[in-house]
Amino acid sequence: MNSAIILLSGGLDSATVLFLAKAKGFKTYALIFDYGQRHRKEILRAKKLAQLSGSESRVVKISLPWAGSALLDKKMRLPQNRKIIPREIPATYVPARNIIFLSLAASYAEVVGARAIFIGANAIDYSGYPDCRPAFFKAYQKVMHKGMKAGVEGKTIKIFAPLLYKTKEQIIRLGLKLKVPYELTWSCYAGGARPCGKCDSCLLREKGFEQVRKVTKSLGHQ
Predict the structure, then answer these.
(1) Angle, in degrees to the nearest 10, between helices 134-147 and 97-112
(2) What is the Cα–Cα distance from 153 to 210, expressed in whole angstroms?
(3) Comparing C-alpha atoms, which of 127, 201, 204, 211 is closest to residue 169?
C-alpha cells in the first residue's frame, strides 16, 4: 500500500483531502501543526478527524515568534465581512506557511517512505494567499526533486493538491460523496464558542454550503 502525508488543519478542505486520499487507497499519516495560531480548536478537530479516518497522526509544534499575521498576533484585527479579491493578500496570510509546512511534510515523508503529500490548497474560492497558487506548487515540486535524497534517487515525493481548481461548492459535493464528517471540521479564524460567520474562512465556507443547498433545492423541484 502506498503511503501519503496529509497536511491536516482540521478545516473543510484538508478534511476532504484526507478522505480522498483514503478513498484512493493510501495509508495516511496526518501531519497537524501547532504553530501559535489564535486557537487550538482546529488542532483538536484535526486529531478527531485523523482518529476517525484511521490515520496515524502527529502534532508538530513550531514557533514563529516574529508573528506577522492576524492568525498569530491577537493584537492584529481579523478582517471581517471583507470583499474577497484573490489578487489582494489579506492580513491572515502567514509568511511562508506552506513552504514551512511542506518542508516538514517532505522530511516526514522521506523518513516513513511515503511517496505523496496531500494538501487542501485551493486557488478558486480562496483568500488570495500566494502559497495556494498553482505556480507555487510547481516550483516547490522542483525544489523537492532537486534537494532531497528521494528525488536524486529517482523516487520523487509528489505533491497532490486535488482541490486546487475546484470551487467550494465542488469541494463540498466531493466531500459529501466521500462521507466527510463536516460537522467535525472547524474553519473559523476567530475560534470562539461558535464560528464568527464574518472572517474570510467562514464566508467562503458558508458560500459553498449555500450553493450546494440552492442546487439541491432546485433539483428537488424538477
Answers:
(1) 40
(2) 47
(3) 211
CA atoms within 13 A on the CB side of 38: 18
For the question of whether the overall pTM of this predicted structure is more than 0.90, the answer is yes
- Residue 7: in which H helix or E strand, if any? strand 3-7
Beta strands in 62-169 (DSSP E): 116-118, 158-160
Give the separation between CA 204 and CA 51, rounded to whole angstroms.
26
Q: What's the CATH code of the domain at 56?
A: 3.40.50.620
What whole-number distance in Å separates Cα of residue 125 and Cα of residue 208? Answer: 9
Q: Give the model's pLDDT for residue 220.
A: 61
User: How many domains does the chain contain in total?
Assistant: 1
Q: What distance in Å separates the CA atoms of residue 74 and residue 89, rounded to the nearest whole number? A: 18
Closest CA to 117 of 148, 152, 162, 63: 162
Mean pLDDT of 184-198: 94
Query: Region 65-79: what's the mean pLDDT?
Result: 94
Q: Work out the mean pLDDT of the chain and round it to a whole number.
A: 94
Sign of the CA dihedral with 31 first, then 32, 34, and 37 last: positive
**E-assigned strands of 36-176?**
56-61, 116-118, 158-160
pLDDT at 85: 82
Domain housing 167: 3-220
Please compute, for residue 197, the number of CA atoms within 13 A of its CA located in the half-sphere on the CB side: 2
pLDDT at residue 157 greater than cutoff 80: yes
**Per-residue pLDDT at 86:** 78
